[in-house]
Amino acid sequence: MFLYSTCTFCEAILRQCGFWTGLFTSPHLIDVRERFRINELVF
Predict the structure, then answer these.
(1) What is d(CA 35, CA 25) in angstroms, rounded to the nearest whole number?
(2) Is the pTM of this model over 0.70?
(3) Where does the secretion signal sit in this chain (predicted)?
């Protein structure tokens, strides 16, 4: 859980700085589709 929140926090900072981001988390917390995020869009 801590790694997931740390990655999400870093991703948010990078997006605010104008970077395109991609985030892969495993295992998923609620829905399997939340594992893949590109610029905050869930796939």
Answers:
(1) 5
(2) no
(3) none
Number of H helices and E strands in the chain, helices first, is: 1, 3
The residue ranges of DSSP E strands in the chain, in sequence order, are 22-24, 36-38, 41-42
The residue among 14 and 43 whose pLDDT is bigger is 14
Q: Which helix (H) or strand (E) holds 35?
A: none
Q: Write out the two tokens for 4.
A: 């997931």
| Token digits of residue 27 | 């295992």
Q: What are phi and psi of 4, to 5 degrees?
A: -60, -45
Domain ranges of the chain: 2-42
